[in-house]
């Protein structure tokens, strides 16, 4: 028997698979596709942030313009003459048209100049710089506590789906969701400050002076702000994880011999984190809004107290500055959460890989 070798025609057999791309080629193709959704999310977030801040500035300035306070008369006192009041209004720029006042205020605010207090002549930006670190530190600690408490409770409830721990978490979350922060704060003061005398009931120490004392003074107000948010995080994470644990990819991974912890933290938790981040993004304005009552309850010298005291005496520039800075903090934090949520969203990752 003889074997005949077909001549080499220079063509590839139709059944031969095409050569696989090298590692560098695959990386160059996949990574840009995965980056596209993030770039779109950042661009969309910036557009929304600019629009929201513009609307917030218009609303804040309109509220200040519609107030019936007479700052010149309040500063000069009851003995001021009409000529003195007119001169002071000119110095404050209140004799100009409202549109011109707004444009001038926004233009200065973009450059970091929020004007001066009508009563103390202290720059508004300096007053906010002293008060803002208090709010940022309390809000950051409250958010960390909410994520730790809510995340741990949600994961435990999902693993004990229908069990005792799941029912306890559901009950506690239902109770906490009905309690406002000031009620929780008063309960914490009664328990930890009055009864047990473990923590102070008010005051503040900057974190750069004494971190340990800062934690002692900050833990109660942060807990008061975080428990409601922790309940929302726990419920959302528990629901998302129970759903994800029943998906085919989670069941198939366990059938292939992957460990429970690897399936949970490597696949299920990442897919369940995106909806939970949406809850965290919605909770940021609630934490900032709850700081008004919490700061007064615990005697914290934050931005909320600065705005409240300024509003009581009619110091419009300080009120406008605090409202604008608060809006910037909320919008920036919410935008960062939205970008992170887009990065963890499995749907966005699949769409980016298919393009």
Automatic annotation (TrEMBL):
Q: Which domain of life is it from?
A: Bacteria
Q: Which residues does the UniProt record annotate as the domain ABC transmembrane type-1?
A: 132-341
Q: How does it sit in the membrane?
A: Multi-pass membrane protein
Indicate the secretion signal residues.
none
Q: Where in the cell is it found?
A: Cell membrane
Similarity field: Belongs to the binding-protein-dependent transport system permease family.
Q: What is this protein called?
A: Peptide/nickel transport system permease protein
In which organism is this protein found?
Answer: Nocardioides exalbidus
């Amino acid at each position: 028997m003889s074997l005949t070798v077909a001549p080499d025609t220079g063509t590839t057999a139709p059944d031969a698979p095409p050569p696989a791309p090298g590692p560098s080629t695959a990386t160059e193709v996949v990574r840009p596709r995965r980056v596209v959704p993030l770039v779109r999310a950042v661009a969309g977030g910036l557009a929304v942030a600019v629009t929201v801040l513009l609307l917030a500035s218009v609303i804040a300035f309109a509220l200040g313009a519609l107030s019936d306070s007479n700052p010149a008369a309040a500063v000069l006192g009851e003995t001021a003459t009409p000529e003195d009041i007119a001169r002071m209004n000119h110095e404050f720029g209140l004799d100009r048209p409202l549109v011109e006042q707004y444009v001038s205020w926004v233009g200065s605010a973009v450059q970091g100049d929020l004007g001066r207090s009508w009563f103390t002549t202290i720059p508004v930006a300096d007053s906010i710089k002293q008060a803002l670190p208090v709010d940022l530190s309390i809000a950051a600690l409250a958010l960390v506590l909410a994520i730790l408490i809510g995340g741990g409770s949600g994961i435990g409830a999902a693993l004990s789906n229908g069990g005792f721990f799941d029912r306890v978490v559901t009950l506690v979350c239902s109770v906490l969701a009905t309690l406002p922060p000031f009620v929780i704060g008063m309960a914490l003061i009664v328990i930890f400050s009055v009864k047990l005398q473990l923590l102070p009931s008010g005051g503040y120490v900057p974190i750069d002076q004494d971190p340990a004392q800062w934690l002692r003074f900050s833990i109660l107000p942060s807990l008061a702000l975080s428990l409601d948010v922790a309940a929302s995080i726990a419920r959302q994470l528990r629901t998302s994880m129970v759903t994800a644990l029943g998906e085919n990819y989670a069941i198939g991974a366990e059938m292939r011999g992957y460990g429970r912890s690897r399936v949970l933290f490597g696949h299920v938790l990442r897919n369940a984190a995106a909806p939970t981040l949406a809850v965290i993004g919605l909770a940021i304005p609630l934490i900032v809004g709850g700081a008004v009552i919490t700061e007064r309850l615990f005697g914290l010298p934050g931005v909320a107290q600065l705005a409240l005291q300024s509003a009581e005496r009619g110091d419009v520039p300080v009120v406008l500055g605090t409202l604008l800075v608060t809006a910037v903090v909320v919008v920036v934090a919410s935008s960062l959460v939205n970008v992170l949520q887009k990065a963890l969203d499995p749907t966005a990752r699949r769409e980016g890989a298919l393009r």
